[in-house]
Amino acid sequence: MAHDAPQATGPSKLVIRNIGLILSGALEKPILDGDTIVAENGKITAIGRFKDVNTEGATTVIDAHGTTVAPGLIDSHVHPVAGDWTPRQNQINWIDSYLHGGVTTMISAGEVHMPGRPRDVVGLKAMAVFAQRAFWTLRPGGVKVHAGAPVIECEMVEEDFKEMAANGVKLLGEVGLGGVKDGPTARKMVGWARKYGIQSTIHTGGPSIPGSGLIDKDVVLEADTDVVGHINGGHTALPDDQIRCICEGCKRGLELVHNGNERSALFTLRTAREMGDLHRVILGTDAPAGSGVQPLGILRMVSMLSSLGDLPAEIAFCLATGNTARMRQLDCGLIEVGRSADFVIMDKAQHSPGKNILESVRLGDLPGIGMTIIDGIVRTQRSRNTPPAGKVPEVVAK
Length: 398
Fold this sequence. Notes:
The chain is α/β, with parallel strands linked by helices. It contains eleven helices and 20 strands.
């Protein structure tokens, strides 16, 4: 089982030089001018040309060899349980495998697969606090797992949300996976959560596993959660007219997941773009689930939305990074000064017909990952899961 990766033990300075392309993660300016990034003590301190930034005193120097540096990918919808193990598929090291797919941050949509998951109020609150504490202490491979997302039940009162928030809980599991499946009750509890700084997500579409149920547009709109979870279904999507109604009827996050209906994902993307609301679109996998674990799920979503959704690749990467970071109030996901130094370094896959990484993704190919970095520390080098990259970065000094 993968355990937490080493942390920096003293002052650190990372320099990534000879970068061919910097993807910012920001829709308003998805490509940055520069060939060098500097990070000190886990935070980005400079982005620009090598000759213009201070690289003295580096503790780690990476020669990117002309490859692409992007923010570490964020999976907005996972279902962790305990450490790097999932009982849903009885697999270990699934989070570490996601790291090899470029994912450096994960957001729990509820620890619903916990064997014997308590459904009484005391038990579900205790499990949420435990999950939040455990995953922030243990970071498999260095991946930041924001967990502790209770599945709400009808017996809960406002004081329960106040208590959870005071103990570090910042997320709700998918509304609809527990006993709360109606609009009025959901709206009341989502309001309590929001009052105490807890973000909310709702299950959207048909039942995904035994215990879940249909959540249609009326419930979604009345509940008014911060994120419309898997609007493209998990797996079964709502009809197009209901999806459009949700897109137009609220201004909350529109989450597209790998384990959903691909046609509905493309329909949602087109609708959001027509509305000028691409900033609302974020990406997740909704795994582990009945369809398994998808280490390359976020990359596959980026490639699918770009190639079939006629979306420039540099914009598609924003949906998996900066959009989610801003919506989830995270300090990663964007390459800008002051943000966490979480990066994925990539290049077009060997033998892809694309002339460069952006064209290859636009043609539907996955990039090859050569390195992941979290908090300014190299976590992986050549990915064991992606196609081999045409060029790979190299640690030249440490």
